[in-house]
Amino acid sequence: MGPHDQSNQRGSGRYTSAVLTVTAVALVAIALQLGGAAPPSAQAAQRASSSENQEAMGVPNAFAQRQRMIASLELIEQRLRAIESRFGANSPVDVRVVNADEIATVPADGSTRE
The whole model's pTM is what? Predict the structure, then answer.
């Protein structure tokens, strides 16, 4: 090998090193853009949208489920209290339990059998 061949190999090695360095810098820049840290407000928005997406995909949100259950129970309690107030001790409704054989049946046309 002559002196010309050695300088050509060094130049080629420098070129390869420069190309690899540029490629590495470009890959780091792309990685930072794709997976870089988002600002806190963007992170909060991403968490909110991800929880909505999770519910849409069938992943339950336990807190939201419990809130709906509590609201339903409160509604049931209100309705039960209304029913109890209507049928309390001084209720105009009189309930009697009788044997089914003792109940007189009335035909569908409303006529009486006698």
Answer: 0.33
